C-alpha cells in the first residue's frame, strides 16, 4: 500500500511540475459586452495557433503552451484592467493576445502592460490614437489603424456614387477615432457628412438620435458602432421610422449576428473589415474546418496571427522574457526569411531553433509597419439576401 501511495504521490508531483512548466498566454478579449458575438470565434482562432505551437513539441525545447482567458468586456476599462492584472500577476502569463476594443486596450496598456513590462498584441483594437501612444515597445497590433479604414470607406462610397451621408458613432475611443477618420477622408474627396451624432451603448431606444440624423438628410447612414449593442439599436430605430434603409457598416458592425437579426431588411448595406484574399487566408479557413468556428470570420485571422507572432518571437529570442522577445516581434513578422503560413508554425519553430530567419505571412498577409501595427488590407462586403457577401478587397 505504501508503495502504491508513494507512486501516486510521485505521479502527482510530476504532473504538478509539468503544469508549472507550461507557458501561459493571456487571451484577453471582450467575451461579454457589445462585441461578444465577434469575440467567440476570434478567441478560438487565437487559441488555434497556441495549440498548434504547443502540439509541435518544438517550442523552447519542448515546452507546452496554454491559453488563459480574461474578459476585457470591450467597454469597461476597470474590468479590463482587473482582468489583465489577474492574468499577469496571478496566472503568470508571458504575453497577451488582446484586448479586443480600443478603450480597453488603452487602459490595459497604461495600467498593466507598461508597469509590468509584458508584451500585448491586439488583433482588433483599431483606434488611430494607438499608433502614437506611449508603449515602451511592448504593444503591437495585427489589425490596421482606423485611419486607413476611414480612407477605404470614403473610397467605397465615392465608387458607388454616394455623395452625402449621415454618421453616428459609439461614444468611446474607437467610435470617435473612426468617425473622425471617415469624415475627414470622405469630405476630402468631395463628399458631404450631413450630420454627426454619438450614441451610447446599452440604451433601449435610439429614436431621438436617428431623428436628429434624418432631419439633416443623407443617402446612407454610416454606423461606427457595435453589432451587439448601440449600433444594432441605431439600425433598428432607423428601419422602424423609415429614416434610412441602407447603412455603411465599419468593422465593429460586420458579423453574422447582425444579419441574423435584420436579414434582408438591410440588403444593399455595405460592410468593411480587415481581410485579404491572400493564400494564407484560404489556408486558415481550411485549417479551422471542424473546429467550431470559421477561419475567415472578422478578426479571426488577426487573432491567429497575434498568437503566432507572439510565440514565434519567443522562439526567436530563446526566452519568454517580454523585455527580450519584444524586439523579435517585427523580426519574425517581416522579411527577410522563409514565408510562413497558417498550419506551418512547427516549420517556423524549427527554422528559428536552427538559427534561420522567417517572414511570417499568416492569415492576413501580415506586414508590420511604423509603431508595430499592420499595414492592412480590407474586405468590402454587401448584404445580399440577408447575408454578408464579399465584393472585393482593398
Could you explain the architecture of this structure?
With 394 residues, the protein is α/β, with parallel strands linked by helices. It has 2 domains: 20-145 and 279-374, Response regulator (Rossmann fold), CATH 3.40.50; 147-273 and 378-393, Response regulator (Rossmann fold, 3-Layer(aba) Sandwich), CATH 3.40.50.2300. It has 14 helices and 16 strands. The strands form 4 sheets. A 7-stranded mixed sheet has the order 7-6-8-9-10-15-16, with helices on both faces. α6 links the parallel β6 (164-170) and β7. The longest helix is centred in the first third of the chain and has 21 residues, at 36-56. The chain is globular and about 65 Å long. The model is unreliable at 1-19 (pLDDT under 50).
The multimeric state of the shown protein is single chain
Overall mean pLDDT score? Answer: 94
At CATH level 2, the architecture of the largest domain is 3-Layer(aba) Sandwich
- The third-level CATH topology of the largest domain is Rossmann fold
Placed side by side, the strands forming the largest sheet appear as 7-6-8-9-10-15-16
Estimate the strand proportion: 15-25%
- Largest sheet: number of strands, sense, barrel closure: 7 strands, mixed
Structural class: alpha/beta
What is the CATH C-level name of the largest domain?
Alpha Beta
Termini separation: 70 Å
